[in-house]
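Late entry, flavin mononucleotide complex.
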Amino acid sequence: MHSELYQSGQIGSRKTLNRFVAQAMEGNDGADGGAPGERSIERYRKLAEGGWGVVILEATTVSPDSLARINGFVMRRENLEAFKKLVGTFKKTNPDALLFFQITHAGEKAGSFSRPTALYARPEGPPPLSEADVEEIRKAFVGAALLAEEAGADGIDFKICHGYFGCEMMRPANVRPDRWGGSFENRTRFLTEGIGEIRSRLTNPDFILGARVSLYEGIRGGCGTAGADELTEDLEEMLRLPGLLKELGMHYINVSAGIPGRTSEITRPTPQARWFYLHLFRYARLVKELGTGLTVFGSGYSLLKEKGPELAAENIRRGYTDFAGWGRQIFADPLFPRKLMQGDQIDYCIGCSGCSKLMVRQLNDGCSVYDPYYKDLLKAR
Ligand SMILES: Cc1cc2nc3c(=O)[nH]c(=O)nc-3n(C[C@H](O)[C@H](O)[C@H](O)COP(=O)(O)O)c2cc1C
Ligand code: SF4
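Prediction complete; structure with ligand written out below:
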């Protein structure tokens, strides 16, 4: 059953256990200063036990002032030992599962407890970042990637999705008149110079470089439109990005879409808007069919419950994606791949949005249906 999902895959020079990807999911349970805490470490230990081929560590900011969640992770030297402990526990549980750190800056989505920034002027927004400020953020991405390597991660997932800083840079709406805005070349400079420097400073030749990309954001001037004042989908430009990632020596692209909180269902289909998963499938297929040689991860399988593995296997078989990623399902049942293989009973995500509500309320985040800790937390507020 679903044999394609259990076949080993290839990302860069690394072989994977299978084609299951545990997508990044913020647990908002870091300790003071953004280090992973005991609860965080246990969450990732469970995913290692669950037999996912690839696990992506949740959004981890590159500086303490770029947080979207009050207890989010921050990649800085003070937190290195805690990240090493997380990786050590994960690898001890399952040495063959790959662990990539998603590195990000929350940009305009930073919380009021942090420092929301603006790349380009907006009414009532903070003043736009200077050219030098953007360069500082680029350096912070480089520093975070190198620290991830030092912590023992197998790679990074460079965040260009869901409305965070990486997406803001890429948008046609980014009409900054300096080297960071305007042309496609300028809007991708942050990535090209960032990855270029990361590659030149890494010491592990097998370290994996990937990016999670919102192909279409669904906002005016957003990624996947043809201009600063355009709203409808035009993927011409975003479909140039995978080729660029490949040229930069990157290994995979994790295809997503939308902006949670603004165009939420495009990112995560809900029972009322379940057909959006078809768009997520289509985006992964479009990228895969470019034939760049990048490994492609698809998304949007959680709401499909039992059907998810079947459709994931079909998409792999037909060459529409290489790997299949689950988001909310990793909260609902972190042991999902292992249980599926063994024929054990699985707790399927029902798409109730309980975890999204916990996130919006800035509480520790997990499944409020199957885990009593999060159930009580949601009830209490
Ligand atoms: C509570 C919550 C936290 C999330 N955190 C992240 C994150 O840290 N990074 C990221 O790229 N996506 C994040 N996502 C999006 C998921 O990774 C995934 O793309 C989305 O839920 C759709 O997949 P699914 O239908 O399998 O859940 C989050 C989603 C939810 C609901
Ligand atoms: S809280 Fe609801 S949406 Fe979130 S993982 Fe659990 S069942 Fe799925």
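Residues 131-151 form the longest helix (21 residues). Will revisit in the morning.
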